[in-house]
Write a structure and sequence with these properties.
By secondary structure, the protein is mostly helical. Helix content is 50%, strand content 6%.
């Protein structure tokens, strides 16, 4: 299993904001991680729409966490950014052409695995991912 780039960037952005108090520009975050500013802008819009960050517009604008890092659940972030419905063909009732679906146990095994994965992530907050904020920030100095 591999998380999408959008989920990866969302988690990285949230971690950056959790480690660095205050407001930070998308350009700054993209530069620090060495990732595409344009792609990060789309992720930031979604983070704001989902209520994880506040987006301040304008020349001196930027992003800041919309809630404390210890209240942002990692499992919820992943659920909001990932699309597990297309994990395998049989997860999509409309597009499923697999002939063995009625007798196959794969769908249930994979669905249970994804649910276990998400339950595991539910045990962690954004604050857990960052740990010691000073050590996390020191990576960029």
């Amino acid at each position: 299993m591999r998380l999408s780039v959008q989920t990866d960037y969302a988690l990285r952005t949230l971690m950056y904001l959790a480690a660095h108090d205050g407001q930070h520009s998308i350009a700054e975050i993209a530069r620090q991680y060495g990732i595409s500013k344009n792609h990060l802008m789309k992720v930031a819009q979604r983070l704001a729409a989902e209520g994880f960050v506040e987006s301040i517009r304008g020349r001196s604008g930027g992003l800041m966490l919309n809630q404390p890092a210890d209240t942002i659940n990692v499992g919820q972030v992943v659920r909001r950014f990932e699309e597990f419905g297309g994990f395998v063909e049989c997860f999509d009732a409309r597009g499923n052409g697999c002939v063995v679906t009625p007798v196959c146990g794969l769908r249930h095994v994979l669905a249970d695995g994804i649910e276990s994965f998400l339950r595991h992530l539910d045990g962690f907050t954004l604050a857990d991912l960052v740990g010691d904020k000073a050590k996390f920030r020191a990576v960029w100095t």
